[in-house]
Amino acid sequence: MHGGARIESGGQRFAEGGGEGEFEAGGHIDEIDDLFGFIILMPQAQAQRLGVAERVHFLGWRQDTAALLAAADMFVCSSRHEPLGNVVIEAWAAGIPVIAADADGPRELIKNNETGLLVPVENADALANAMQVLATDEALRARLVAAGRAAYETEFSEPRVIALYKEFFEKVKR
Asked: Which residues constitute the domain of residue 69?
């Protein structure tokens, strides 16, 4: 990596969503250059309290998700409540490896150690370990990227979704 990992983080940032784990985890990983966040609704004071404020970019609401993902080395979703996990699908489409908390949405999408890494919800130590491993293991990153991209192409690409809609409409029409 370019002197360290750039982490993209997103997902539910409301009271029930949580998702501060990447900040806690990032506080004790030297290999991380930046922690990016495209929807950060938690108080910036928390990043200061955790000692990572100088490494976190609070970007506010953004619509250029693809550009942010393209600048990242990995995507982290530490939300304790992530109903669908569209952020995981977006990361797969962008070709970056995913680490997610074992919440409902990501758990349904990610095959652990195959298409991404799942860590226990609200476990900053496990998240830090996964981030450290992914930041330093090039072969693992490449494997997760390839499998994640394949999962995206197989299940969520535009042609696949259109085919599923057509199939659904044919069933409803009968």
From this structure: 5-173
